[in-house]
Write a structure and sequence with these properties.
The protein is globular. The protein has four helices and seven strands; from the N terminus they run βαβαβββαβαβ. 34% of the residues lie in helices and 26% in strands. β1, α1 and β2 form a beta-alpha-beta unit. α2 runs parallel beside α3.
Length: 106
């Protein structure tokens, strides 16, 4: 099954690697470096799934999840994080998070 993935990460290299991997797997990818654009896309009805970093530009994506959920209550959200992986994983127990994975090297 092919999906439109909304990808958000403020690290250019991570965004590029994930975007290429998802594209090679046959998915279309819209990538951004901030949570505000991610929210705008979700509110506009774009995308089938979200893959997002935790911290972008000093903003915690968990602060944006309620708005994303309001706009798209059934959209799966996959969170990846590099900082404090245990705390992030615990936060990822948030009911709106479909899955969590740590960034490599964390």
């Amino acid at each position: 099954m092919k999906y439109e993935v909304l990808l958000a990460d403020d690290d250019d290299s991570v965004r590029l690697v994930l975007s290429k991997a998802l594209t090679r797997a046959g998915h279309s990818v819209k990538a951004t470096d901030n949570a505000q654009t991610l929210l705008k896309w979700a509110q506009a009805g774009q995308g089938d799934i979200i893959v997002t970093d935790v911290m972008m530009g000093g903003r915690d994506v968990f602060d944006t999840l309620p708005e994303i959920s309001e706009a798209r209550p059934r959209m799966p959200v996959v969170v990846c994080g590099a900082n404090k992986p245990v705390n992030t994983a615990l936060k990822a127990g948030h009911p709106k998070v479909f899955e969590y994975f740590p960034k490599p090297g964390t």
